[in-house]
Amino acid sequence: MQPPPLKDDCFAMPPGVDWTPVDTALAQLRDRLHAVTETETVPLAQAGGRILAEDVNAKRSSPPYANSAVDGYGLAHGGLPEGGICVMPLSDGRAAAGEPVEGELPVGQAVRILTGARLPDGVDTVVLEEDCSVESGRIAFRSGLRRGANTRKAGEDVAEGAMVLPAGRQLLPQDLALLASVGVAEIPVRRRLRVAVLSTGDEVLDIAAGPARDAQIFDANRPMLLHLLRLWGYDTVDLGHVRDNPETVRAAFDKGAAQADAIITSGGASAGDEDHVSAVLKAQGDLQNWRIAMKPGRPLALALWDGVPVFGLPGNPVAALVCTLVFARPALGVLAGAGWLSPQGFSVPAAFAKSKKAGRREYLRARIRDGRAEVYHSEGSGRISGLSWAEGLVELGDEARDIAQGDPVTFYPYGAFGL
C-alpha cells in the first residue's frame, strides 16, 4: 500500500477531484433559480420588510404644492425695488401649514407665512423673518434676495406618476415614508418566502432536550439559521433535528418540500460514511455541486428535492454561517422575488499578515479597528466565539497571495449581508 504524501491540511485539494470555484457555483445558482412567491396587496402599514412585486409610481406629487421652507414673509419677487433697503406693507392674514391664505397677494405687498404653508397666489419668494424688521404693519429687509428663495416647488422631490421604488426592493422604514408622501396606500408585494431548517447528526442535541452526554454537542446551527432567516424577512419552518439515518433524512426532506419554498440543512454534506444528506440528495435529489473551493465551507450540497432547492451546509457553525451568507442569501433573494443580492465590500488596510495558497476562496472573521481589518486569531470552523467577536468577513480571492500589514483587503461588514 502506498498512501499519498502527508499534507496535514484538511483543506488541501485532493488530486483528481473536480472542485467548483465559488464564482462558478454562484453563477449556476443565479442562472437556474427564479422567483417562486406569489403576489398580494397589503396596506402600507403592513408592508415593512416585504418585497415589492411591481414598480410603484407616485399617485401624488411631493411636495403636492409649492410651499415655504422657512418662517418668514412671502412676496412677489417682481415687485421688489432695486437696491438699498426694501420696505413693503404687510397684507392681512397669515399662511400656515394646513391653513392657506385665499386670494391673490397684490404685487408690492408681503404676507406672513410659516414653514410648510402653501404659497399664496402671487407669491414666489420668501424672506426669512430673521432678515426682517417689522414695524407698524410694514417689513424692511436688505436687497439681494433671489427669486424663489426659501421656497419648495411642487413635485421638486417626486412628480406625480414617476416611478418611486422598483420591483424587487425589500421595503425599509424610510421607503414607507416615501410611499406615504406620494399617496400610495396599498402596496403590491410578494408572499413571504418560506424556508425550512433542518439539523442532522447523531452527536447533535437540541438545547431544549436537557443535559448533553460526553459524546454529544448542542445544536448551534438551527437557532442561528432560523433567526438569520427571520431577519431577512422570511417565514421559517423548523424541521428540528434528525439522526444520521437515510430514511429519517428523506422523511425530513419530504416534509420540508411540502411546507416550504427552500430547505437549509446543516451536517452530513460531506462524503463520509455517515454523511447521509449528500448521499440521499445524490441518490434522489438531483445533486448539482458539493465540493466548493472555499474555506470555510468546503462540503456544500446544492440540490433539488421535489423541485424545492436544498442548501446542504457544513456542520461546523462557522462554515455553516459563511456558506449561508455567500450562497444561500443571494439564492433565497431570487426565490423571494428580490433578485440576486450581492454584498457590498470595502477595501481596507490589513492589520494582519498571512500567506494564502492558490485554488480556493477564503473568508476570515474580521472586524475594523482604527480603520484596519483585524482577523480572529483562529481560522477553525468550530470556533463559534469568533462569529460574535467579528463584525464581518475579509474575503481573499482564489489566487495565491502573501498579505502583509497594511496591504489592501476586501472587508464585508455583516450589514452587507443583511445582518
Which topology of the largest domain does CATH recognise? Molybdenum Cofactor Biosythetic Enzyme, Chain A
Give me the count of strands: 28
Low-confidence stretches: none
* Ends apart, CA distance between termini: 51 Å
Specify the CATH architecture of the largest domain. Answer: 3-Layer(aba) Sandwich
Q: Give the CATH superfamily of the largest domain.
A: MoaB/Mog-like domain
Count up the helices: 7
| Main sheet overview | 6 strands, mixed
CATH first level of the largest domain: which class? Alpha Beta
- Rg, please? 31 Å
Task: Please tell me the overall pLDDT.
Answer: 90
How much helix, percentage-wise, in residues?
10-25%
Biggest β-sheet: strands ordered side by side in the sheet: 7-4-6-5-9-8
> Domains counted in the coordinates: how many?
4
Proportion of residues in extended strands: 25-35%
Described by the principal axes of the CA atoms, the overall outline is: elongated
Helices and strands: which structural class? alpha+beta
